[in-house]
Recover the amino acids of this structure.
């Protein structure tokens, strides 16, 4: 540059260095404007060819920080290159440029993270329900705070401030705080698990292993609130809520199966019993709006019980409240139809097969606890024996003979 100026007879004027600095600054300003107005729009158009708009969001987030970064870089070069600075002045310029660079980098990272979370929230959770919506505000605040904290440490290190004691103090302080609020942290992480798992949601009817039953009102970070049948509010800490066994009656679908077991006497015609039960189920499916007609009704004999031949009926209701209505109507209609057709539902009954020659008085005495032929109880070893009150026995006796007119079992 000096050779060219000397050839034209200008020598080495004093205004050359300031003019060069101003020229470099103007060039950087023009470059920033060109990037902001032209290149940025070109890059933005290229991102429209991609199937996702995530890259477009990222480019928009970095527009202003990159523009300011070009200007800062131009000003730094305008000061360092043409001007004759001392070592101390150069170090000062380097420090200021580094601080501005860290600040712009923090802006770029936080804007990118925020736009990425917004994109995820708008495009994924509405269709797939991957993460609960309430988790994103906390996640965003935590991420931004972490980025600013790391940036602050970098700035302190750039200013020649020893950050090792600060990091050690923060580690010990964080450990002490974590131990002090361990139950709160346990509930917080358990709340994160409950929200991200998506097992329960407000409005679901659930039943916990301990017997708590009701509708979920709210799933918070620390606790889950449940409204019981008595319209009371039960607050369950998330630490216990995440470890207990939960039955969700709303998942995977709101429909609830109705299972009804019953039994008829051994004297009943089982084919006729099946016909009557299927007719009853068809009537309930046609007349009751809470029953799922498309699911149909299912019937089957279960086992030979002590007093009845047991069977079951299987229907489906649209929700849990409808299942109570369907079950009540099914019981009423089934009981009515069984009575109309002369089919008996027996009470629990047992039949005793007595050996030959054993009379009713002997069996009654054995039931009362006194062996047949034993003399009345008296004093045993100086103590009065406590007599137990007689118990009534209602049994159906079946022996090898027919009872006579006095009620005794006769011999063959």
């Amino acid at each position: 540059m000096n050779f060219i100026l000397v050839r034209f007879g200008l020598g080495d004027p004093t205004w050359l260095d300031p003019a060069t600095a101003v020229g470099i600054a103007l060039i950087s300003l023009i470059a920033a404007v060109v990037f902001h107005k032209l290149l940025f729009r070109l890059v933005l158009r290229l991102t429209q060819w991609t199937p996702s708009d995530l890259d477009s969001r990222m480019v928009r987030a970095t527009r202003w920080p990159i523009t300011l970064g070009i200007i800062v870089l131009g000003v730094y070069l305008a000061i360092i290159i043409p001007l004759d600075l001392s070592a101390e002045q150069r170090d000062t310029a380097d420090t200021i440029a580094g601080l501005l660079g860290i600040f712009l980098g923090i802006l770029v990272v936080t804007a990118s993270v925020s736009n990425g979370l917004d994109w995820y929230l708008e495009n994924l959770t509405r269709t797939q329900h991957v993460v609960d919506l309430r988790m994103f505000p906390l996640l965003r605040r935590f991420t931004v705070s972490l980025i600013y904290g790391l940036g602050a440490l970098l700035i302190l290190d750039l200013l020649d401030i020893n950050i090792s004691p600060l990091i050690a103090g923060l580690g010990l302080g964080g450990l002490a705080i974590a131990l002090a609020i361990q139950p709160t942290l346990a509930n917080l992480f358990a709340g994160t698990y409950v929200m991200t798992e998506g097992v329960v949601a407000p409005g679901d009817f659930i039943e916990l292993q301990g017997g708590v039953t009701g509708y979920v009102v709210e799933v918070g970070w620390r606790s889950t609130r449940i409204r019981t049948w008595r319209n009371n509010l039960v607050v369950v800490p998330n630490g216990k809520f995440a470890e207990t066994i939960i039955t969700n009656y709303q998942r995977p679908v709101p429909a609830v199966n109705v299972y009804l077991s019953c039994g008829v006497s051994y004297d009943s015609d089982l084919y006729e019993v099946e016909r009557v039960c299927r007719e009853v189920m068809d009537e309930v499916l046609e007349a009751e709006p809470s029953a799922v007609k498309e699911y149909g009704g299912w019937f089957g004999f279960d086992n030979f019980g002590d007093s009845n031949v047991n069977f079951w009926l299987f229907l489906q209701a649209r929700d849990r409240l409808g299942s109570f209505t369907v079950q009540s109507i099914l019981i009423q209609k089934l009981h009515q139809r069984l009575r109309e057709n002369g089919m008996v539902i027996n009470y629990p009954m047992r039949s005793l097969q007595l050996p030959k020659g054993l009379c009713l008085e002997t069996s009654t005495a054995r039931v009362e606890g006194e062996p047949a032929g034993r003399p009345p109880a008296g004093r045993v070893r100086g103590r009065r024996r406590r007599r137990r009150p007689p118990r009534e026995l209602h049994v159906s006796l079946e022996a090898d003979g027919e009872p006579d007119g006095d009620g005794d079992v006769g011999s063959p």
In short: The mean pLDDT is 79. The two ends are 143 Å apart (CA to CA).
